[in-house]
Design goal:
By secondary structure, the protein is an alpha/beta fold. 46% of the residues lie in helices and 16% in strands. The strands form 2 sheets. A 7-stranded mixed β-sheet has the order 7-6-5-8-10-9-11, with helices on both faces. α11 runs antiparallel to α12. The radius of gyration is 28 Å and the shape is elongated. The relative contact order is 0.09. The structure holds uridine-5'-diphosphate and magnesium ion (MG).
């Protein structure tokens, strides 16, 4: 069986260019060709390819003095925090940039906050915002977005399911000119039901939003500062951040990232996630596409419904006069009346919507890219 060996074990070895076989514990290096190093462990042949890539991904990344903020929303994740901050520091230090990490404690009831206080005491680049109660992941992300000072902003979950080692790859993509890079848990370590429902969710969201992503709801994402300062998330809208960004005109893409099983504690989202998701999508489409022109949506629906209703009533009226057939008992009669009334109602809702928009006109609904 061929499989990858833990990069730590390899990095501890002596020389990067050494192609001689050598002993490291019970692992024996056999040879190296290009970026590949071949090992033998307990007699089985295995290979390892990541060694050179590991180094390259930091060397190739030119961040030009940009600063990086990492936002970590968390709710009762006491066991993961120290491990996560150690892993984060290791990656962020290697980027050779000015960095900060914002842990947003979303009203944890376990010892998460005292862990964070300790982490902050040791290194004050790790900051913490603590909520009075549990407001949800979206609110936690928003608090982080408001506080973040970096040119590039990373968000990730606190449960060690996301890998900080993916940060350089995400930043590289931002450097290519994207505004938001979303992680794609290509090989996902979650229960089947979650993977299955998320496939359906991603399919429908892609269809309605017009942006094909495999994974809208990955905790690991990277943003340019401008995106973070212009996106507002509330309720459970964090699932749709790439959609909000895309509909606002930002350039969105995704890259495959590694994903791990939850190490400690359990998931914070129960069955309710399946129900709320759909309503959120409707709200999203409505508020981004039609918020400034409600009559465009409701007027359209109203006219279709009213026209169908009127046509039916007209048809029945003609029948009554020319063929003298009674029409009041026919189901079609009620359908016609219903459609006509519903059509008028849609129209009125649209008009009321327009009035509300008119009184709210001072609020910006556009994002300026550049001015000359
Ligand atoms: N989370 C949060 N507030 C909540 C629920 C979750 O800040 O009300 C955090 C949680 O601590 C974790 C991240 O959001 O860091 C993702 O949550 P979880 O791992 O439970 O979601 P899953 O991976 O199961 O989708
Ligand atoms: Mg998780």
């Amino acid at each position: 069986m061929i499989e990858e060996i833990n990069p730590e074990a390899v990095n501890q070895e002596k020389s990067a260019d050494d192609t001689e076989g050598e002993k490291n514990g019970n692992t024996q290096r056999i040879k190296q060709t290009g970026q590949r190093r071949y090992f033998r462990k307990n007699g089985n042949k295995r290979y390892f390819t990541r060694f050179r890539k590991e180094q390259d991904k930091y060397e190739q990344l030119n961040l030009n003095g940009k600063s990086v903020s990492v936002i970590v929303p968390l709710y009762n994740e006491e066991d993961s925090l120290v491990e996560l901050s150690v892993a984060l520091k290791k990656v962020l230090d290697r980027l050779k940039v000015n960095w900060e990490v914002y842990f947003v404690d979303d009203g944890s009831t376990d010892s998460s906050f005292s862990k964070l206080r300790e982490i902050n005491r040791v290194n004050n680049r790790f900051k913490c915002i603590r909520f009075k109660r549990n407001y949800g992941k979206s609110a936690a992300l928003q608090a982080g977005f408001d506080a973040a000072k970096g040119d590039y902003v990373i968000t990730m979950d606190a449960d060690l399911q996301d890998d900080p080692e993916e940060i350089p790859a995400l930043l590289k993509k931002l450097n290519e000119g994207y505004d938001l890079v979303s992680g794609w848990k290509k090989v996902r370590k979650d229960p089947f039901i979650k993977k299955f429902s998320s496939r359906i969710f991603n399919f429908f969201t892609s269809l309605m939003v017009g942006l094909r992503l495999h994974d809208y709801n990955c905790g690991l994402k990277a943003y340019v500062r401008e995106a973070v300062k212009n996106i507002r998330v509330y309720g459970e809208m964090h699932r749709y951040i790439p959609a909000i960004a895309h509909l606002s005109g930002f350039r969105v893409t995704e890259i495959a990232v590694s994903h791990y099983e939850r190490k400690y504690g359990k998931t914070k989202f129960g069955v309710s996630r399946f129900f709320n998701g759909f309503f959120d999508l409707v709200t999203l489409i409505f508020t981004t596409r039609y918020i400034k022109r409600p009559l465009h949506l409701f007027g359209f629906l109203g006219i279709i419904s009213f026209t169908c209703g009127s046509a039916i009533i007209l048809y029945l009226t003609i029948l009554k006069f020319f063929e003298a057939t009674p029409i009041s008992g026919r189901p079609l009669f009620f359908v016609g009346i219903l459609l006509a009334i519903v059509g008028l109602q849609f129209f009125s809702i649209g008009l009321i919507g327009e009035m509300i928009t008119k009184t709210n006109q001072d609020k910006d609904f556009y994002i300026i890219d550049k001015t000359l």
